[in-house]
Amino acid sequence: MVTIKDVAKYAGVSVATISRVLNENGYVHEDTRRVVEKAIKELNYTPNEVARSLYKRKSRLIGLLLPDITNPYFPQLARGVEDRMQQSGLRLIFGNSDESQQKEQDYIQTFVQNNVVGIIASTNFPGMDFYRRLKIPVVFLDRISSDRPAVYADGREGGRIAAQQMIERGSRQIAVLQGPAHVRPAQDRFQGAVEVLQDTGVTYEVVQTDSFTLDEAQRRAEELFVSFPETDGVIASNDMAAIAVLHEALRLGKKVPEDIQIIGFDDIPLSELVSPSLSTIRQPAYDMGKQAAELMIQLIENDDVELKSIQMPVQFIQRGTTRIKAEESI
Amino acid sequence: MVTIKDVAKYAGVSVATISRVLNENGYVHEDTRRVVEKAIKELNYTPNEVARSLYKRKSRLIGLLLPDITNPYFPQLARGVEDRMQQSGLRLIFGNSDESQQKEQDYIQTFVQNNVVGIIASTNFPGMDFYRRLKIPVVFLDRISSDRPAVYADGREGGRIAAQQMIERGSRQIAVLQGPAHVRPAQDRFQGAVEVLQDTGVTYEVVQTDSFTLDEAQRRAEELFVSFPETDGVIASNDMAAIAVLHEALRLGKKVPEDIQIIGFDDIPLSELVSPSLSTIRQPAYDMGKQAAELMIQLIENDDVELKSIQMPVQFIQRGTTRIKAEESI
DNA sequence: TTGTAAGCGTTATCAC
DNA sequence: GTGATAACGCTTACAA
């Protein structure tokens, strides 16, 4: 491994000078700069980030904590974050929490131990002490907190829209998948939907789920049609669940959207590719990731940015699992 | 931030002693150990990994390089890697290469600058100089190399199986999606399929694709049915492409699998949930990730492990997009 | 304009 | 058993 000393020796100057040209601060004569740059190139030297980080007490690393990258919604968030960070030369230490508080705490700890400059987390425990104690910038992603800036979508509004669309498009026996109780966006969506359903006086049933795993989604989908065979509309807790419901409905020989309408949430890439394609409440996941990264970078660069959160708009995407309204068919 | 010095002062001993109890090496009296442990707990001290890393010239970090986490196949690999690393207290620095050599090289460089102990990469350029020069363990994942250990699936065999199944189940006008030329597994699959197709003398057409993006998959799917309307069987380059083909076929009013059979590769989680569910050549992605991590850990722990690669078995998964054979329907 | 040296938080060597 | 202390590779006062 070639160090700054090697370069210094090779170039016939002191390490301080090397450091100066590297960081472009302090005076350095044009001639010596050239010599140094040549030496750096010839020795193929790149500075050791660890040593830098130790001295400065901050690295070029960002901690990113997601529930489960295996859920197709999160890779998009992650890409948004990464692409923006890339531009600023920041890298990611990454971990899946599986929504376990312990795992989450462990990751946060190693993030800190590695001198990350900031943490972006999609957590179910934004109020926890181990977050409060952090002295570095934290941005919550797809989650809300009163202590810290956050980037999230308007789940409540999404729920409302889903319910309205269901009703406008003719469903009268609606099942709502509630999603895990501890996942805030899931509950927001649920509440938004129920709000409208109650106001409108439409009959609805609630199916509680404990997780966002595909396995559970499949089980709940089966149960749903056993418990409530009359259902003619399903508001799922996310697209994966919606696709599971769609699959089960078709398996049972139901016609979609004629017999039963389905609306998901997120608009994951494959939603468009199932058949019929899935109507859904779109959350701009990639952009949310980007925004979170943007916010983080602001926070890093000048820490007097006021606590500001960003709510992203949601949007109904009409596709094949909901019926066409009269005025749309014109 | 509380450092080892603070703990030393608080416990009334030297930093050396703290270090000894931390690392459980060297002699330390039972009594002082207790005092130190108490101090550590009370001050809530955790050692700074950066300082450790600087001294030891190796961190507890692994670099993980994937083409694009947004492709549903890769999150599974990533989870496999992560879960195994977790067990050994190793963390991941993560990057998407987008199959760009430049981005890849940049990531490798920052991995090295951060003293990672090893690199796991799903790269299209395993032979590149910047890999050869690395002095730390490298494991290639879902890719093959003669220089370094690798964990990969038998794509060639997968391609053969796909073609055999297509033929056995009655397709006679087969289209094969070739996949990007620079992606080794895609070419292996393609060659395997063509091998069988040629041997059998069945008519087949080739559709070349340049990337694994969903966008392109959709475009190619449309083109396919325009160029070769008689096609009654499609071997896709991966499940995403297969699902795009399925979607297009249904849109055109074709019956699947009666009019046209489709086989994908990978068995991503959603393959089971499209309708009809997708027949595919399964690659055990999660396990591959785990194996790669396992291999890496061996390499780290004793570097005299002989260069060994692991080929994982592939397997045909019969689902809804291929017809049932006579003997299966019994 | 450049060099010397202290210090970032650890670990490991060597005295005691 | 325990404590000083050099060293890891870098940055930044401060001197020269």
Description of the structure:
Two copies of one chain form a homodimer. With 330 residues, chain A is α/β, with parallel strands linked by helices. In chain A, 44% of the residues lie in helices and 16% in strands. Chain A has a six-stranded parallel beta sheet, sandwiched between helices. In chain A, strands 7-6-8-9-10-12 form a six-stranded mixed beta sheet, sandwiched between helices. In chain A, strand 1 (61-66), helix 5 and strand 2 form a beta-alpha-beta unit. In chain A, helix 1 packs across helix 2 (15-23) and helix 5 packs parallel to helix 12. The longest helix of chain A is centred in the middle third of the chain and has 17 residues, at 184-200. The interface between A and B is large, with 54 and 56 residues. Strand 2 (91-96) of chain A pairs antiparallel with strand 2 of chain B. Chain A binds a DNA duplex (16 and 16 nucleotides) through residues 1, 3-5, 13-20, 22-23, 25-29, 32, 47-57.
Q: Which fold does the CATH topology of the largest domain in chain A refer to? A: Rossmann fold
Distance between the termini of chain A: 70 Å
Could you say what the CATH architecture of the largest domain in chain A is? 3-Layer(aba) Sandwich
Helix content of chain A: 40-55%
Give the full name of the CATH homologous superfamily of the largest domain in chain A.
Response regulator
